[in-house]
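One-letter codes give the sequence; the fold follows as tokens. Both lines appear below.
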Amino acid sequence: MMINVAPAIIVLGQNSVTVARKIISVLPGATLHGLAGRTSGVDVSFTNFGEALRELFVQGRPVIGICAAGILIRTLAPVISDKRQEPPVLAVAEDGSTVVPLLGGLGGVNDLARRIAEALGVKPAITTTGDLRLGTTLLSPPSGYYLANPDDAKKFISDLLAGAQVKLEGIAPWLSDSKLPIDPKGDLTIQVTERLVTPRTNSLVYHPTTIAIAISEVIGHEDEAVALVQQALADAALERASVAGIFAPITLAANPAIHAVASALRVPARFFTPNQLESLLSQGYSLAQAAAITATGTSVITTSSSHLAIAIASQPIDPNTIGQPRGRLAIIGTGPGGEQWMSKEVKEILKSATDLVGYKTYLDLVGSLADGKERHESDNREEEARAKMALDLAASGRYVAVVSSGDPGIYAMAAAVFEVCDRYPKPEWDSIDIHVAPGISAMQAAAAAIGAPLGHDFCAISLSDILKPWSAIEQRIAAAAKADFVIAFYNPVSKERTWQLAEARNILLRHRTPDTPVVLARNLGRPGQTVKVITLDQLAPATADMRTIILVGSTKTRTIKRSNDSVWVYTPRRYTEQ
């Protein structure tokens, strides 16, 4: 059985992490949960083992505990109620020598145990009588098959184990190659069909995922599209559980109705480029027919209208090997430094992405979250080329994360990507799902490190004149100084630019007193972090570099000297004299 929810691997000590990593290598999307204070390098930390385990179980997450089987059973006992709903639960020995499936027989626990055991080079401790004697798991069929009447399976398997023979109607290699006592005259029956049928007495019905639904044009709203497809299945007497996927030309990848249909049928949507359909279109097939044939490898169209075609393959379809998914492009901000400042959303994107695009320094900040990803590094000034690369990768069906430090929408890659989309539009980019995930900006981190200097109105100005003229920067500094904003200066000094910061200070001194507080924050969240406070008249090019964010106070910004010779800096919210 296909495990549709990413498993959670629980470890109670650092010694178990190595085994956990081996398991994760064969379970894409699995997350590592570790006991706080005893483990490091995990995805999720917990302090209460019982609460964490029961919460995962109730959520329906497959659980792999690298610990004794007894502690898992005792901890889960209060929430075990319905075996038809429980997720797989397995115990793995700390040294990886044993894999024991405990719960979730209907959820594919034995198959999951086999995958884990293979990764660890051991044999799974499967004790299910049906599995051992019949050579297959009738309750949890392999990926590509759906058991329509699981409530009848217990008696069915009991009869088989008592000596009854079974008649197989339909084609399913996993059944015909098993140890099942197959006999054309058997009293029991297994039906393998994509047709709508009512299970007979003493029978099991399996629906193979052999149906491809192809849509070439969407008419109406999302609900109408769903109803149209459901009616087409009903008219053809086809079982919706046998639908493997929704297939369409890439031009429909951004159409919400396509994804609504796929969601309603709980299947993926896959898309074909014009080149993939060109040959069939030249033979006179409609666009929908061409997509259905390409998906199934058969020219037999079960049902077809001008914009919808249904075809049935001879074997279950794996949609992940056909066409491409809708490309996704996430532009993320990792925060100014360490992983502790990354949002949960950003971490989830990094885990799911197939490709990471960005400046090498920023990709390195991602740490272990970059493991297993395709890295596409470039120089920090190659923003336009980087954006084009990311868009092209996403257009091919990849899930691309463009990595910026801080917030991606503040002097970073979000604007670069949208600028490229605007200036160099490509039809294939229209299909991409583009999403911006915010991060903590450098000015926010700097302010938090020293108090609350951004407590009232403020603005941000980049001192880099690479993308805009100095005359514009000069005007903005003067205007912000005159308006009495707190100012955050980005990109203050580089090897090629040294005079701009001194000139900015001179402009500010026309409107601010020499003792105005200035915060210099360097390498925030990274090794070598420094945060110090100077006065405006001390601000000079030698005090900063490209890793420094500078906060210049307003006329109302104040400092508080502390007993340990450190200071707080804040700007009062009440701007009038008290």
Notes: The chain has five domains: 8-127, 145-208, 211-321, 331-440, 443-570.
